[in-house]
């Protein structure tokens, strides 16, 4: 075989090899483009129709598989955000409806008392007392509503410092002494005489404890019991507020702190709860760098526990 023949043969083989490589590259890129068009079309369809479906692509290409996986993560996050927004919107309307009802009821009573005084012009002192009480209820409700709005908007400035939680626990229980005695509550207090210092803010902690104790009086009254104890470990102080009333079913345990949640008896006129107290307590605890937990066995023991970071200096 001559040199020219060998050179021609090698050139032909090289040309065939280059052709095969170019064909494979063309086929590969055409396949990629086809898959990308499929992904793009499916993504557009999912967004336009708001179907919530995932983008599916059948390929052995790892990059395309990763791209589809990340797109599906975005779609899943988008779906969750929309669902959360819808729940929040529905529940916000419900809360505003409840707030409107809670304001309207005492205002109707106030107007009724004022009309009676205008017509009869007698027993004005007693009527004025009742009118004043209803006006106070309205103001308390409005204050709670705006407190919660400020907390959730991050507009409430709470300056943390070293506070004695033992003293605050005793003072807060004393604030409720008259109403507890009037309602024949058994009260048990287990708070150390010595100071227990935590990271916090006095008024915020008083508000938390007041809301929890008010919750016991309102919802746990059938148990006729209030317990308040303070315990600690090396890093944390735990304040337990306990009652022995009807308690909270486990099905509702994760929802009681939700501002949009109301239990079935919370609209009961005899109970007169507006569902904001526990939500405010939870948000204030978070502002203090702590948290509130719940453990409830209906008609045995219900315990709300406030966890706060200790300070030793």
Key structural traits:
7 strands; two-stranded antiparallel ribbon; single chain; 14% strand; alpha+beta; 313 residues; 7 helices
Q: Can you describe what's shown?
A:
This protein has 313 residues and is α+β, with helices and mostly antiparallel strands. Helix content is 58%, strand content 14%. It is built from 7 helices and 7 strands. It has helices at residues 3-49, 62-120, 124-153, 165-175, 177-182, 202-219, 277-287, and strands at 161-164, 186-190, 197-200, 225-232, 236-243, 291-297, 301-309. Strands 2-4-5-7-6 form a 5-stranded mixed beta sheet, with helices on one face. It has a two-stranded antiparallel ribbon with strand order 1-3. Strand 4 and strand 5 form a beta hairpin. Helix 3 crosses helix 7, helix 4 (165-175) packs across helix 6 (202-219) and helix 6 packs antiparallel against helix 7 (277-287). 21% of the residues are buried.
Mean pLDDT metric: 75
Low-confidence stretches: 15-28, 265-272
The largest β sheet comes out as: 5 strands, mixed
Shape: extended
SSE pattern: HHHEHHEEHEEHEE
Give a short synopsis of this structure.
The protein is α+β, with helices and mostly antiparallel strands and 313 residues long.
């Amino acid at each position: 075989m001559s040199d020219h023949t060998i050179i021609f043969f090698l050139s032909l083989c090289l040309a065939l090899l280059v052709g095969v490589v170019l064909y494979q590259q063309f086929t590969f890129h055409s396949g990629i483009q086809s898959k990308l068009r499929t992904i793009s079309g499916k993504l557009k369809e999912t967004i336009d129709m708001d179907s919530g479906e995932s983008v599916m692509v059948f390929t052995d290409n790892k990059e395309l598989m990763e791209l589809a996986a990340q797109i599906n993560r975005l779609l899943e996050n988008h779906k969750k955000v929309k669902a959360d927004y819808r729940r929040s919107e529905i529940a916000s309307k419900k809360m505003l409806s409840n707030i409107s009802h809670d304001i309207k009821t005492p205002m109707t009573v106030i107007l009724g008392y004022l009309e009676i005084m205008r017509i009869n012009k007698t027993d004005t002192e007693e009527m004025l007392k009742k009118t004043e009480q209803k006006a106070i209820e309205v103001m308390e409700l409005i204050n709670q509503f705006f407190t919660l709005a400020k907390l959730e908007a991050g507009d409430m400035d709470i300056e943390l410092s070293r506070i004695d939680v033992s003293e605050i626990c005793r003072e807060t229980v004393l604030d409720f002494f008259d109403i507890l005695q009037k309602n024949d509550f058994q009260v048990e207090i287990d708070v150390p005489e010595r100071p227990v210092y935590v990271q916090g803010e006095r008024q915020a902690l008083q508000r938390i404890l007041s809301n929890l104790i008010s919750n016991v009086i309102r919802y746990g009254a059938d148990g006729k019991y209030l317990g308040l104890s303070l315990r600690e470990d090396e890093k944390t102080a735990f304040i337990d507020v306990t009652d022995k009333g009807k308690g909270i079913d486990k099905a509702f345990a994760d929802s009681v702190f939700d501002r949009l949640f109301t239990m079935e008896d919370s609209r009961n006129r005899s109970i007169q709860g507006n569902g904001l107290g526990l939500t405010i307590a939870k948000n204030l605890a978070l502002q203090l760098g702590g948290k509130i937990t719940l453990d409830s066995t209906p008609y045995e023991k219900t315990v709300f526990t406030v966890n706060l970071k200790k300070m030793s200096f």
